[in-house]
Amino acid sequence: MKQILAVFLMAISLQASASGRYDLEFEAQDRYEDVHMAWYVVRDVPQTCAMAGALKGSRTQYNPKIVACAVRFSGGRTCVIYTAKQLSLAVLGHEVRHCFEGAWHD
What pLDDT digit, counting tens, does each position of 30-57 carry? Predict the structure, then answer.
């Protein structure tokens, strides 16, 4: 059920992003691995993402521009999404994609 929801969210977010700033078309894989996801709404997204290890390289310090992040644990089998209370479907779909495809941008 969670996988179906994730795929549904990804599909909707792609359509929603067509007119927004998250216009990132991509080719879906034929099959995605099983990933267990959790979603937490937090007060300070940039700080939480930095502490959770979601930011790599020079971006490991507090970055106030971060609005959400996805962190994979347990060899990629568990993914935790951190967001603010107010967000768009495009942002959530973007993070769900990270849960299934890992880090695919800087």
Answer: 888 889 999 999 999 998 988 887 665 5
**Helical axes 89-101 vs 2-17, angle rounded to 10°:** 130
**10: nearest Cα among 103, 71, 105, 99:** 99
Which residue stretches of the chain are H helix? Answer: 2-17, 45-52, 89-101
**SS3 at position 72:** strand
Q: How far apart are CA 22 and CA 35, in angstroms?
A: 23
* Reported pTM: 0.69
Helix, strand, coil in percent for the chain, rounding step 5: 40, 15, 40
Which residues on neighbouring strands pair with residue 37, listed in sequence order? 79
The conformation of residue 27, written as its DSSP 8-state character, comes to P
